[in-house]
Structures are given as C-alpha cells and as structure tokens.
Write a structure and sequence with these properties.
Layout (H helix, E strand, L loop, with lengths): L1 H28 L16 H12 L8 H24 L4 E2 L2 E2 L1 H31 L16 H16 L4 H29 L7 H31 L14 H12 L1 H4 L3 H29 L1
Helix pairs in contact: 1-2, 1-3, 1-10, 3-4, 4-5, 4-6, 6-7, 7-8, 7-10
Amino acid sequence: MDFVLSGAAACGACLFTNPLEVVKTRMQLQGELKSRGSYQVYYRNVFHAFYTIGKVDGLAGLQKGLAPGLVYQFFMNGIRLGSYAVIESSGYIHTNGRVNAAKTTLAGAVAGVVGAVVGSPVYLVKTHMQSQSTSSIAVGHQHKHKGMILALSAIYKQHGILGLWRGSSAAVPRVSVGSAAQLSTFSSSKELVIDLQVFPKDSWLVALCAGMISSVVVVMAMTPFDVVSTRLYNQPVDHLGQGQLYKGFADCFSKTLRKEGLMGLYKGLGASYFRLGPHTILSLFFWDELRKVYQQCR
C-alpha cells in the first residue's frame, strides 16, 4: 500500500505540474552546445515560454507527454517514496528517536536509484514527446512520436531492449541526488517544524511547510543533473543506438560546461523551480496526507 499511495500522490502532483515540465524541457534544450548570443531565443523566460507554447502549439501543447509523465510518476515515485516509507517505518532513519541526516540521505539516494532505473524507458519517451513542437519554435532533436505505446514499440524494434534504457546513466545520478536532497530535507524539516511548535503536530501544514523547504534544496542540487539528463535522453542516435552528440553523462556534463559555461548547467533554473518546486511540495504533501488517512482507516 505504501507503493500505491506514493504513486498516486506523485500522479496527483503531475497533473498540475506537467505544463511546467514541458516548459523546463524546452528551455534546457534551447541553445544546446552553443555559446550565448549565437542562437535564436524562442523562450526568454518561464512566462514567455508558457505563452509561446500555448500560442503556437495550443493548450494541448502544454500537456505534451502527460501520459508517459503519469506512468513515470506512478512507477518511479511509487517505488522511490514507497521504498523510503518502508525504510522509515523500519526505524532505520532514526537514531535515538531523532532523524539522522546521513541515514536519510543514504536511504533517499538508494530509493532514488531503484526508481530511476525502473522508470527510465518511460522518462525517455516523455522527454521526446515534450520536446516535440511546431518547427517555428522547435528546440533540440525532434523525434516525431505519435504516442507513448507507439514510441516504446518503435524504440524497442529499432534498438532493442537496451535502447529503452538509453540515457539511464544520467537518470541514476539525477534522481539519486534529487531524492537524497528531497527526502533528507523533508524528514529533517518536518521534525524541525514540529520542534518549533509552529503548527500542531498532526496538522497538514507541517508537511506543506517541510515540502516548501525541501523544494528549494532539491532544485539547487538537481538542476545540473536534470539538464544533462534531458539532453542525453533527447539527443539523436545512429543506427546502432549510439548518441550522436554525447557519449554519456560525463561527456555531456563537460561539453555543456565548456560550450555554455556554468550557467549552461543551470539553464532553465526558473522553469526548474516552477516545476520541481510545486511538484516536490504537492507530491510530498499528498504522500504524507494519504499515509495518514490510510493509517487512520486501518
């Protein structure tokens, strides 16, 4: 039940934040491997990108990749948060009744690795579909998928089972770092808010406040890995399934840093917060509240 509740919480958050995921993906691919000033800027900031996509691709364009996004959230976060809930309920993350920072970080990272590996094929398709756009505002490689199932089938037929896990070398560090930062700060922040007696111990505001604190840490820690992950997943591949722009995580990281500077790794930071921030807050809030309801109904 921990896994089901965790997946349901993440899907609930995804319904609200998927348009921001589309915006974030486009901004991270804009000007790929090009120095500032040498490419056309279609998306000036989060709000301009939101407006541009809605105007050119229509409102449906802002929900591109929703189906694979929901599937990804259910399985990846279901496994990630579910695993963490099991570890937490076993008492592992506590030492002498208090949250242990090192243990929560380790537990969050391990849970993130498992979730990232399982969800990688659907994340691949989600990235492809969210980057697809009308040619006048297109950024990154355009894969031209017609739907999630057709995309998974086409990738499998062309590149085999390993082709479905292309880009997972970036997904593992991305999710493990993000998960470690998110869950360790969430657990510690909840304990801090309770200790300060800002809100009643069982109030839904405790989880909401802790989620808000966690969201800032997650975005700062995760964005460089998120940029690399998006680019690795979306890059074109040859007939053997090998990437034509990057050889792997380290190559993408170094090329982006060399060509675009440090800010290239933080490209779309505003979009990342507007997406990861609310998603972190909502998913952790839904997760915490659903677990409370389940415990009361048992």
